[in-house]
Amino acid sequence: MRGEALHRATLALWVATTILMCVAIYLVFLYAPDERVMGAVQRVFYFHVPVALMAFLAVFVVLVGSAGYLWTREPRWDHLARAATETGVLFCTLVLLTGPIWARPAWGVWWTWEAKLTTTLLLWLLLVSCLMVRGYTHDRDLGARLAAIVGIVAAVDVPIIYKAVDLWKGQHPVLERGGLAPAMSVTFRFCLLVFLLFFCLLLLLRYRVAELEERTDLAVERAGAR
Question: Could you tell me which residues come within 8 angstroms of residue 110 by beta carbon, excluding any fewer than 6 positions away?
Fold first, then answer.
């Protein structure tokens, strides 16, 4: 019964995310006006900022799952941390891909080693390290504990990224409150909602996969023991 309800919820979330993503694309390219200075390239903003916020949210979930596993050793916390780590890698990768698309016309270069970009790259490397630690450790519990420690370190990097411009200045733009036109604000908030739903969908699907992987591994171990 629980599995059936979860399946229906996942399906509903999938449908809602797909429909709203189509609406978001319409808003970004047809509803929101061009920015006066940067023109059409500014539209990357509606994807770049939401995926960055989802990457931060993923790291927060990694922190919760990692701390929960280190405290209780219960597999469900490790499943949550693992699902959030993989989701975080995806969104952090999108941040690093969409950022240069916006930076090239604005700064004249694809990449510059300014504080916010460098610390974001560091976050991506830490999240990938979590996955590598799991992949190269044969002991499941040891791999989960090491990944949890790296995940907690990754979480420390998030506030550093957020305050990087204030701490070290740099070229990265800062969005001021009230700085968006009404149509731009509506589009941005809608895209933020859509990417939040997308994040929840990916996290839920990956969590379920982690549960199935554990059941399969246990079944194989029991079969081998016989």
Answer: 100, 103, 104
At 110, the amino acid letter reads W
Residues with Cβ within 8 Å of 107's Cβ and at least 6 positions away in sequence, in order, are: 171
Measure the CA–CA gap between 64 and 67, rounded to whole angstroms.
5
Rounded Cα gap, residues 152 and 35, in angstroms: 38
Q: Are 43 and 27 in contact (CB under 8 A)?
A: no
Inform me whether the pLDDT recorded for 1 exceeds 60.
no
**Beta bridge pairs of residue 35:** 39
List C-alpha distances in Å: 98 to 45, 104, 108: 9, 10, 15
Query: What is the Cα–Cα distance from 110 to 102, expressed in whole angstroms?
Result: 8
What's the mean pLDDT when you consider all of the chain? 88
Question: Domain limits of the chain?
Answer: 2-225
In this prediction, residue 224 has a pLDDT band, given cuts at 50, 70 and 90, of low
Helices 45-72 and 75-107: crossing angle, nearest 10°? 150
Q: What is the pLDDT of residues 144-193, one digit of tens each?
A: 999 999 999 999 999 999 887 777 776 666 665 556 888 999 999 999 99
Q: Tally helices (H) and strands (E) across the chain.
A: 7, 0
Class of residue 20 by CB neighbours under 10 A (exposed 0-12, middle 13-18, buried 19+):
middle
Distances (CA, A) of 22 to 25, 66, 90, 194: 5, 34, 20, 10
Q: Residue type at 138? A: H
Q: Model's pTM, two decimal places? A: 0.90
- Please count the residues of the chain: 226
The letter for the amino acid at 13 is L
